[in-house]
Structures are given as structure tokens and as C-alpha cells.
């Protein structure tokens, strides 16, 4: 594969868009669009630009919800990513509905098929960014994404991916109802035990 070694400031190689919701110190619900996250087990890590309303509130209250929207919520994704909670009630602006969480003091977004209740366990600053390490304490998954044994229907999950570089960024969507099971592509080998 031929490659260019290039100097670019940004490369988003495909990150699921999330809506992070919270109550501020006055108990007002709000939310912000993010693409910077990863999760392992019950740990979740989010990256915020310094100075936004959402990170200011989450720093104070220590609790938040990570909501995973699907392609039906593109307008809300952009409204919550192109406005600040310092000036707007983004639930009202986007038409999304806040619903009380079970374990944490933060609102779930009713319209999102996946919501993760989280508590801040660690907060760090790196360059112009605030890194929030959270602990997932409760997961909510739409019944349409679960089979009759309450296992995730992998082929039904429909996240929106954020991709691009400094020049241009865009949303990408998964082929619907298509998934290959983990381990499907391992070649048969007598000399290797796949773990
Ligand atoms: C698709 C998309 C992805 C975004 N990802 C991030 C992100 O990962 N981190 C971040 O701090 N801001 C991100 N933003 C920008 C924030 O959503 C935006 O700055 C917003 O106005 C912050 O609102 P707040 O002031 O209420 O916190 C993203 C925006 C969009 C549209």
C-alpha cells in the first residue's frame, strides 16, 4: 500500500458521535455533542475542549450520561455541537427530552437508543483539552437493540461516525443490518493458537 507521510493537524479516523448530558449546579439539564471517547469495560474516557459549558458543569457536579444517537438524530447532533449551554437550553433547542437517570443525578436523552450513566472518577488537563475518566454505573439499551435473551443485536446498532482531517470533516454511517462476528476472519493455522 503506497502512503504519503504528511503533516496534518487533525485526523479523525472514525469516532462515534455521542451526546453528553448533565445537570448543572443549579439543576438545569443540558447537553453537548462529542466525538472524543473510548470505553473499556466500565471505564469511559471523554475529551473536551477547555472552556465549554458542558465540561465546566461536569467538573462541578461529577456526574453525566453518555448517550449514543443514531442517524435519525442528525439535526439534534448538530444543534448540540454548534451552540453553547452557556447561552441555550439545548434540550429545548433540539427538541430532545431529558429523563431522570436511575443511579446518577443527570438526565438521559430519551430519544437515544443507548445511554450510559457515569460518575467522574478522574479529571486531567492535556494541552488545550480536559480529559474526563468516568465510571459507567448503569447502562440503558433500547429494546429494539436487544434479542429475547437481552443480548445486544450487533447488526442493529446504528452509531454515527465522525471522520475527517483539518480540511474537512463528515459523518459516516454503518451498512444497516450488517455485522460479522468477532473471530470470523482468523485463518485456520496449525502453528498458531488464536486467543
Ligand atoms: C460532530 C461533532 C463532534 C464534536 N466533538 C467534540 C469533542 O469531542 N470534544 C469537544 O470538546 N467538542 C466537540 N464538539 C464541539 C462541541 O459540541 C461544541 O463546542 C459545543 O458548542 C460545546 O457546547 P458547550 O459550551 O455547551 O459545552 C463536537 C461537535 C460536533 C458537531
Briefly summarize what is shown.
Belongs to the flavoredoxin family. GO terms for molecular function: oxidoreductase activity. This protein is mainly β and 195 residues long.
Can you walk me through this structure?
- The protein has 195 residues and is mainly beta.
- The chain has one domain (12-173): Roll (Pnp Oxidase, Chain A), CATH 2.30.110.
- Helix content is 11%, strand content 40%.
- It is built from three helices and twelve strands; from the N terminus they run E-E-E-E-E-H-E-H-H-E-E-E-E-E-E.
- A seven-stranded antiparallel beta sheet has the order 3-2-6-9-10-5-4. A three-stranded antiparallel beta sheet has the order 1-11-12, with no helix packed on it.
- The longest helix is centred in the N-terminal third of the chain and has 9 residues, at 53-61.
- The relative contact order is 0.19.
- The site of flavin mononucleotide has 19 residues, from strand 3, strand 5, helix 1 and helix 2.
- Its cofactor is FMN.
- It is an enzyme of class 1 (oxidoreductase).
- This is Flavin reductase family protein.
- Belongs to the flavoredoxin family.
Amino acid at each position: 500500500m503506497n502512503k504519503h507521510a504528511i503533516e496534518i493537524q487533525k485526523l479523525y479516523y472514525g469516532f462515534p458521535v455521542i451526546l453528553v448530558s448533565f445537570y448543572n449546579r443549579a439543576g438545569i439539564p443540558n447537553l453537548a455533542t462529542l466525538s472524543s471517547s473510548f470505553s473499556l469495560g466500565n471505564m469511559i474516557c471523554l475529551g473536551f475542549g477547555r472552556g465549554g459549558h458542558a465540561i465546566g458543569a461536569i467538573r462541578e457536579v461529577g456526574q453525566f450520561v453518555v448517550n449514543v444517537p443514531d442517524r435519525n438524530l442528525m439535526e439534534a447532533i448538530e444543534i448540540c455541537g454548534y451552540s453553547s449551554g452557556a447561552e441555550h437550553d439545548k434540550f429545548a433547542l433540539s427538541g430532545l427530552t431529558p429523563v431522570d437517570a436511575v443511579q446518577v443525578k443527570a438526565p438521559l436523552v430519551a430519544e437515544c437508543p443507548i445511554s450510559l450513566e457515569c460518575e467522574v472518577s478522574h479529571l486531567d488537563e492535556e494541552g488545550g483539552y480536559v480529559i474526563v475518566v468516568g465510571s459507567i454505573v448503569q447502562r440503558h439499551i433500547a429494546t429494539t437493540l436487544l434479542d429475547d435473551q437481552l443480548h445486544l443485536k450487533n447488526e442493529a446498532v446504528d452509531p454515527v461516525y465522525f471522520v475527517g482531517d483539518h480540511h474537512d470533516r463528515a459523518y459516516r454511517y454503518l451498512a444497516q443490518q450488517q455485522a460479522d462476528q468477532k473471530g470470523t476472519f482468523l485463518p485456520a493455522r496449525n502453528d498458531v493458537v488464536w486467543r
